[in-house]
Amino acid sequence: MEEIFRFTVNGEERECRTEQPLLRYLRDELRLTSVKDGCSEGACGTCTIIIDGKAVRSCIMSTKKAAGKNIITTEGLSLREKEAFVYAFGRAGAVQCGFCIPGMVMSAKALIDQNPAPTEEEIKKAIRGNICRCTGYKKIIEGIDLAARILRGELEIDEAVEEGERGYAVGDSAFRVDVREKVLGEGEYVDDVVMPGMLYGGAVRTEYPRARIVKIDTEGARALPGVVCILKAEDVPRNKVGHIQQDWDVMIAEGDITRCIGDALCLIAAESPLILEEAKKLVKVEYEVLPLVHNIHEAMAEGAPRIHENGNLCQKRHVTRGDAKKALAESKYKVTESFTTPFTEHAFMEPECGLAFPYKDGVKVLTSDQGVYDTRKEIAYMLEWDPDRIVVENKLVGGGFGGKEDVTVQHTSVLLALKTGRPVKVKFSRQESINFHPKRHAMEGTFTLGCDENGIFTGLDCEIYFDTGAYASLCGPVLERACTHSVGPYCYQNTDIRGFGYYTNNPPRGPSGASAYARANLPSR
Ligand code: FES
Ligand code: FES
Question: Are β-strands 248-249 and 240-241 bridged in parallel, bridged antiparallel, or unpaired?
Answer without folding.
Answer: antiparallel
